[in-house]
Amino acid sequence: MAKYRQNRINDAVKEEAAQILRDVKDPRIASSLVSITAAKVSGDLKFATIYFSVLGSDEAEIGKALNGMAGFFRSELARRINLRITPQITFKFDGSAEYGANISSILKKLDIKPEEDENEEADS
After folding, report:
1. Closest Cα to residue 49, out of 33, 34, 63, 38?
2. String of b and e for 16-55 (b: at least 16 CB within 10 Å)?
3. Per residue in 13-43, pLDDT tens?
4. Is the pTM of this model over 0.85?
5. Is 113 helix (H, G, I), strand (E, B) or coil?
6. Which domains does the chain carry?
7. φ, ψ dihedrals at 11, nearest 5°
8. 35, 53 in Cβ contact below 8 A?
9. Phi and psi dihedrals of 39, rounded to 5?
10. Which residues contact 26 (CB under 8 A, 6 or more apart)?
11. Residue 62's beta-bridge partner residues?
């Protein structure tokens, strides 16, 4: 039962953080495409790690900007989500999208012909 509640809280924090990110007027963030990929809240609700991905900008600079605005995000989360404790927020870069794109490009470079259907080979 606790796992279900934890997943609901993680999803709620992720959705609200993405919504808050749309309202941010910081030029470092507004000029690049930043998206929230996941949120992980600790079991005691004291800490939350929000994972983000960036397209078209330096992730270290965006990470500094987001971590600088962690207090703003925390106060907005407290206003939007009814939790017993509003967690301390840290932002971390999520490189899984770049990793997946890299794997996809490697697979496209390989010249692998599709295998013919096994039934056709058995019939001949």
Report:
1. 38
2. bbbebbeebeeebbeebebebbbbebeeebeebbbbbbbe
3. 999 999 999 888 888 888 888 899 999 999 8
4. no
5. coil
6. 2-95 (3.30.300.20)
7. -65, -40
8. yes
9. -140, 140
10. 65, 69
11. none
Beta bridge partners of 49: 40, 90
Residues 6+ apart with CB under 8 A from 74: 86, 87, 88, 89
For residue 84, the SS3 value is coil
Query: How many CB atoms are closer than 10 A to CB 116?
Result: 8
In this prediction, residues 52-77 reach a mean pLDDT of 90
Radius of gyration of the chain (CA): 21
* DSSP summary character for residue 81: S
Using H for helix, E for strand and C for coil, what is the string for 8-76?
A: HHHHHHHHHHHHHHHHCCCHHHHCCEEEEEEEEECCCCCEEEEEEEEECCCHHHHHHHHHHCHHHHHHH
